[in-house]
Here is the input.
Amino acid sequence: MADSLRDLLKHEAIEKVTVDQICQEAKVHRSTFYRYFTDKYDLMYYSFERLMIARIDENDVIDSIIAIIVNDKELFRNVSINNNNGTLFWMMVKMLSRQLLKADEEGRLHSIGWVQREIESSTNKELTAKMISGACLTLMFEWVDSNYQMSPKELSEFVKNMKHL
Here is the structure.
């Protein structure tokens, strides 16, 4: 079902995709869908967590997220620009902040010095990780919205070399 949703999102905004379309694409009955997911947004969260988290290079979070977006431009256009309620954005903030906290715990944030400094010096690491995730994802969503006016390398360097939020 996750793959079916992903295929549908390459052509339509999440608001236009229906549970019936997902079931038809996945060749499953609606009752099977609802056995595992409460709605299409629940499936989208699962799908993006599986899609994103599995493909994020723990040693280079920023570049791997940029690469994921570049490899699925139409999908990200349909779930970012065309997503009126911001569901994907908040899902991605949650996922990215968890990855940042995990990288901090494992001492792997050295490639993004400013992120490492902000999280390590924070009195509330979870909130700081969410703030950083939100800022970075806002940049990435703007990048998608601008039709990728910066190269992936320029965006990566911009994010990695920020001094303060």
